[in-house]
Amino acid sequence: MGYVTLVEIFKHPITQKYLRRSGVHHAVNVTEIAYRLASERKENPELATKAALLHDMGHFEWYREGKWDYDEYRRHDIHAIKGAERAHKLLIRLGENRVKAKEIAIAILLHTDSYLPFSVKEFRTPLQQIIYEADEMDELPKGGHHYLQMENEEAIERLTSIDQKIQEVSDKLQSN
Ligand SMILES: [Fe+2]
Fold first, then answer.
1. 160 vs 4, 64, 81, 90, 123, CA distance in Å?
2. Nearest to residue 54, comparing CAs of 34, 70, 36?
3. Can you list the alpha helix ranges (DSSP code H) found in the chain?
4. What is the CATH number of domain 6-169?
5. CA 140 to ligand 1 center in whole angstroms
6. I need a labelling partner for 153 at 20 to 30 A (CA). Which of 19, 20, 23, 68 fits?
7. How remote is the CA of residue 76 from the centroid of ligand 1, in Å?
């Protein structure tokens, strides 16, 4: 089983379909923040960045008169559940290791608790906490971060650079 890169995940038609909806700009920003936090905290940057890239792929669009209806969205939101499921299916399809795919899916499931009747704040693992914090750091009021655009070319460039950094770290670990 080969290593699955962020760029491979990003280019897949399923990722393209769902990240177009929830915002490529936000997905890439959160991935970069998650990389930084994982490096600072000595957590696994591969799992953190994959979960960050896909964390919002479960979003639905709630439009009313051509605009996103934020209140309507709040009422029906299960994006973390959908996202965890979609991400897991996609990763397995791409040949991801099953243990990693599960960890990534759970980090997506718990990246927010706004859809749950209780808080998961005290129960997040350090990896899950990174996705939660990275997402918060890129959030804009009224879901504005979902509207910001980014060309695929720029997204691929930025994700390639993260893929390379992760590769360098793992090469270094292996040569030690
Ligand atoms: Fe998000």
1. 12, 37, 28, 19, 32
2. 34
3. 6-11, 13-22, 24-41, 45-54, 70-76, 79-93, 98-109, 126-137, 152-175
4. 1.10.3210
5. 10
6. 68
7. 16
Average pLDDT, the chain: 93
Q: Which residues are CB-contacts of 95 (< 8 A; sequence separation ≥ 6)?
A: 1, 2, 4
173 CA from centroid of ligand 1 (Å): 31
Ligand 1 centroid – CA 171 distance (Å): 31
Instruction: Give 146 Cα–ligand 1 centroid separation in angstroms.
Output: 8
Residue count of the chain: 176
Q: What digits encode the pLDDT tens for the residues 98-148?
A: 999 999 999 999 999 999 999 999 999 999 999 999 999 999 987 788 888
63-70: long-range contacts, CB 8 A cutoff, minimum separation 24: 68/143, 68/146, 68/147, 70/142, 70/143
pTM for this predicted structure: 0.93
Cα(150) to centroid of ligand 1, in Å? Answer: 15
CA of 175 to the centre of ligand 1 (A): 36
On whether the CB atoms of residues 27 and 108 are closer than 8 A, the answer is no
